[in-house]
Amino acid sequence: MLDDLDRRLLEILVRDARTSLKDLAAEVGLSSPSVSERLRRLEERGVIRAFTVEIDPQALGYTLQAIVRIKPLPGKLHIVQKLIEEIAEFGECDKVTGDDCFIARLFVRSIGDLDGILDRIADKAETSTAIIKAQPIRRRPPPLGVQSAS
Fold first, then answer.
1. Which helix (H) or strand (E) holds 92?
2. Distance from C-alpha of 116 to C-alpha of 86, rounded to nearest angstrom
3. 53, 54, 57, 55: which is closest to 113 by C-alpha?
4. Burial class (CB in 10 A: 0-12, 13-18, 19+), 125
5. Are 80 and 121 in contact (CB under 8 A)?
6. What is the pLDDT of residue 149?
């Protein structure tokens, strides 16, 4: 369970993972060593998995993003999963229930690049692709509020 101080620390870090221990301590009213210990415990418990950076794909020339639903052909599941893992343009992928086995986010520089990547798996899976026009909600953590008793 998280207490109010843990939640507050997480809220601050979600806004800016580079916030210094000194600034974190000042915002929550603890000493830097106390904050450091709390962060270490949150990491050990698996609450904090990483301190990371968010990169703008467009700044790297990836002007298009696509969501690709992937349904491997019979007997090709592991082969398709390995291909997805090896293709660097797949930024994330979820293995899901339902008609498709994978739903992935793909970063590409052009439609030609998209076609080339999809061609690499075309003989092993059926795909359905949607180009992303906008992202009204960026990736965010689950709510940090008090857990309900339901």
1. strand 90-95
2. 14
3. 57
4. buried
5. yes
6. 47
- pLDDT digits over 28-55, tens only? 999 999 999 999 999 999 999 998 888 9
Instruction: Report the alpha-carbon distance of residue 96 to residue 150 in Å, rounded.
Output: 26
Going by pLDDT thresholds of 50, 70 and 90, the confidence category of residue 21 is very high
Q: How far apart, in whole angstroms, are the C-alpha atoms of residue 15 and residue 19?
A: 9
Kindly report, residue by residue over 88-144, the tens digit of the pLDDT.
Answer: 999 999 999 999 999 999 999 999 999 999 999 999 999 999 999 999 998 888 888
Amino acid at 150: S
Domains of the chain: 4-44 (1.10.10.10), 57-131 (3.30.70.920)
pTM of the model: 0.81
Question: Checking phi first, is residue 75 left (phi over 0); if not, alpha (psi -120 to 50) or beta?
Answer: left
For 43-76, give one letter per residue: b (16+ CB within 10 A) or e. Answer: eeeeebeeeeeeeebeeeebebbbebbbbbeeeb
